[in-house]
Amino acid sequence: MNEIITFTDAAVSHIKNMLEKTNNSIGFRLSIKKTGCSGYAYVPAIAEQVIPTDLHFTAQEGLPIYIDPACESFIKGVVIDYVADSNIGLKQKRLVFINPNEKNRCGCGESFTIE
Predict the structure, then answer these.
(1) What's the predicted TM-score (pTM) here?
(2) Looking at residue 40, what is its pLDDT?
């Protein structure tokens, strides 16, 4: 299977660290939900069980990835990075989703629309 999404080394390292700290984790799962002022929001999660309908592949360093098939067309080509953001002088690290399919993002950055 071609990879639907890709990860930077920083994101892989962060996610693998989270998996090690979570009991019963089997991998990283990504889906989206309708929300916010623009329409959709990413829902990253630590997968604890296999959902038979999920799309599955292994990213670099053996990271197991599960994708909700209902969101495949929305997230195809997404690059996930892990960065430090400065917000009012505070540095906060978080996953960032770089999506070539996004048309707009709301002002608060919570939700996005697709072309």
Answers:
(1) 0.83
(2) 82
